[in-house]
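Input record (one chain):
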Amino acid sequence: MGVIIPLAVVTGFWLVVGILGPLLVRKGPNKGIIQTMIVMTAVCCWAFWILVYLHQLNPLIGPQIPVKTIRWLGEKYIRTCYRSVIVVLLSGISLHSPFSLV
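The corresponding structure, as predicted from the sequence alone:
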């Protein structure tokens, strides 16, 4: 039930835009082009929305990384962060402004 309501509401909205939009265009030399643009906009926006909505409906399960690999990545990340802080402190650059010297 929770899937049908947003699907019906958004589809109905883009149907209204695609059907009533071209009827509101004033007469002029480019009336047909403007009507086509409005219909194509409604179709493309609805298609984009439905693809994103359906994609998020049942997300794929992410990769399952072994605990050993996660620990190794954590150690590498922590070492890299500590090295960056030490280099910044030893080089005499202020942490508040990257361009000023201490």
